[in-house]
Amino acid sequence: MGALACPRFVHAQGQLEEPLADSVRSALSAAIAHSEPPVPVFADTERRLAYLRWLGATSDRLHRRKPDFQTRIEFLQTVWYETRRAGLDTTLVMGLIQVESAFRKFAISRVGARGYMQIMPFWSRLIGDGDVSKLFDLRVNLRFGCVILRHYLDRERGDSFMALGRYNGSRGRSEYPNAVYAAARNWVHPDA
Questions:
Q1: In angstroms, what CA-CA distances link 29 with 1, 125, 164?
Q2: Nearest 5 degrees, angle CA 142-CA 163-CA 2?
Q3: For a tag on the chain, would you pick the N or C end, based on fewer CB atoms within 10 A?
Q4: Cβ–Cβ < 8 Å for 183, 191
Q5: What is the per-residue pLDDT for 11?
Q6: What does the alpha-carbon distance between residue 38 and residue 35 come to, in Å, rounded to a whole number?
Q7: Please, what is the Cα angle at 167 between 165 and 170, to 5 degrees?
Q8: pLDDT tens digits, residue range 22-52?
Q9: Which tens digits make up the pLDDT trace of 154-170?
């Protein structure tokens, strides 16, 4: 999980497969199954303008890591959509992606986590259709990652430090959450 993208002391742990209540498994499965296209919808012009300001500024910052304009915009649009859909802080998720995969779509960690948000293959079996190869799909990976992070935030009653530890499999240790918080500072924008 992102050893190249973060300080040397943050080591991949891997999300732990924990037993899920049937109701939780069903809710998570339903959350990833919706196939709406990741197209932001805005209640008013000001919110749309805020999104466009964020998109422009973040696109400029991400240019070095994703030089192709269309790929970069599709990535950012999907991050925005999935974080809003899951009720997550976009800045935090961008920091998590930076630490986990350094924004590499086909990243695989030493423990087998895959894609941008480094999803462990067991999640595909637990809440998906079992096809691990789909974890490299942009939309699938970001949707899984955001749904899983939301699940961990709910389990930890909103405590992002503990939820990030669960996400990394290092719950209670500070290295990983602190690395994500530090990386998130790179993506701060007033409209995020």
A1: 24, 10, 21
A2: 55
A3: C
A4: no
A5: 46
A6: 9
A7: 35
A8: 666 666 666 667 666 677 888 999 999 999 9
A9: 999 999 999 999 999 98
